[in-house]
Structures are given as structure tokens and as C-alpha cells.
Amino acid sequence: MTVKIDLPHDNSYNIFIDKLNELYFDTKVVIVTNPTVSGFHLDYLKSKLTAKELSVCTIPDGEQYKHMETIESILEHCFEHRLDRKSLLVAFGGGVIGDMTGFAASVYQRGIDFVQVPTTLLSQVDASVGGKTGINNKFGKNLIGAFHQPNAVYIDPSMLSTLPRREFGAGVAEIVKMAVTFNKDFFEWLEQNDITEEENLKIAIQKSVETKAYVVSQDEKEHGIRAALNYGHTFGHVVENETNYNTYLHGEAVGIGMVMANTLAVKVGLMSEDDALRVKVLLEKYDIPTSYSIKDVEDFYEHFFLDKKSLDNKIKFILPKGLGDCLITNEIEKNDVIEILKGF
Question: pTM of the predicted model, to two decimals?
């Protein structure tokens, strides 16, 4: 099936969800991937892809390598293979690969095309769609980057067969995020169905992609409604930063962040304790962590100010209003936040 993202300035593109078809590019192409993904799936991709000239740039696997040094190595590969402005990058991997490949494409010769071939559940349902690219630094996550939309996204669910259970759970966290913020019916469907089953998984991917496409089509540069997709991320990014990006997968940190956001939502009267528990139970069904031990509450709170969504020294929180709706607000009192943080 095909989902379309409608954007201004000829930025619209299609998201294809099915077995990979033959891909032909009349230009130089570089596949950017890591050793884990290439070991499982590179031969499969190469059997489907034809280009004028094809090379592979392999970068280290892991969030801890999502920094400027790795971007330099991708750009060096592009220069060494004499890519020009008509050349194309293929992001072949999870969210880290997608973010870095997109960012490299956005700055190489002031911007070249790229396509996404996401291989993890998290990247298939969320990270590959919407054109956010970026890298981390010591101040926080994705603080350096650009909006650079792909030409297309090719989602092949069969690639998920090699995904470890933890990585699968990390993707489920992002699926739950979409349902809680935008679609109560979808949340109830998730409660009743096991998405480790093949047909259910396809439905979950499709529903998530449709939700993300709907939101991005309305708000490409995150001036309004798109910020709702950061539900769980304001807290989760601090968890990742505190643990040096090597304790939790991104989706796992988002799962913890959603539980924290829900606790705050209950405190300020936006969500019932029962609905908060339903979200927690659904996350735990897929072994997603829901607890975290905060060592220094004040320090944790100060980290919020490095979040990209914070403006004028005010922290922007995305809090669920029950199930299927949310509130984007920067009017939450510090005392309320500190009080719920003390519970972790």
C-alpha cells in the first residue's frame, strides 16, 4: 500500500509499505548502513537496486556514534566517490542511520536527494517519515540538524524478521505514542491485538504511518500540531542524555518518558489514573521499560531547558488528555514537575 505526504514546494512524496520492488536510479548512489544491517539485508537491497554507480558507506552501529565525526566520514565517502548534486543517498538502517544520512544529504553540496529504506520497527513507523534529520552532542539529542525530506520511503515489513525483541519493543513505544496522542480507537485495537503477528504488524505500521503523514502534512516544520509527536520525548531525551545514550534504546527511553508525562498529566487533571495504567500495561506487554531512577531531580529538571521545543526559558510539555488527544503547553508549574519527578 502507499501513503502520501502532501507538502508545499514540491516536497510531497510517497511511503510504500510492501515487499521491496525493483528500484532504478539514473545517477550515482551511496547506500549508508551499518555492519549489523548489512550483514542481514544488504545483499537483498542490492539485488533490488540498480544505479549508474553504486557504493556502500558503512558506519558504526549505535546511538553513541550519532555525532559530527560520523557525518564527516559519510561526507568523505561522497567526495571520494565524486558525487554531484544529482547523486542520491540511501538510508538503509534504523532511526540513527536515517537521521545521519538525511543530515549528510542536507549539507553535501548544499543539499542532495536521499531515500529511506528503514529496517527497524521504530524507523518504519516514525523516524523515516517527516524529514527530521540530525545528530547528538554533549548538550543533548538531535540539537544539530535540518528538515530535509526524503524523495520516498520504502517500508518492507519482512526485514523485521531479524529484529531483536528489544528493538521491536522500542518501535512499539512509538506506535503507542501515536495512538495515545491522536487515535483512541487505534489504542484500543492495540490493547486487543498482538502486533508480533504478521498481519497485525502490517496494520499497526500502516495506521502509524498514516497518522504521522497526516500530522506532518499539516505542520512540516513543527510550529504547532507536529510537536504532539514528541509526547514522551521531553522526558525520554533527558533519560538518554543522563545514561550517555548507551543504556536504553531510543524507544525504550520514550516509553519511560510517556509514563513520566502521564504521571504529570494525572497530577494536573488531564488524565485519569486508569488511563495512565492502561498505557503502562500496554508498554509492559512488549517488555518496554516503564521505570527509571532519577539521581538528582533538580539536575534532571534543568536538562529540559536544552530541549529544542523549549522557548523563552519555558519548558514545552506534551501531555495526554485521556486517550486519543493531547495538550501542548508551556504553562506547567515547576513545583508540579518536581513533585512527580521525585516519584521516580
Answer: 0.88
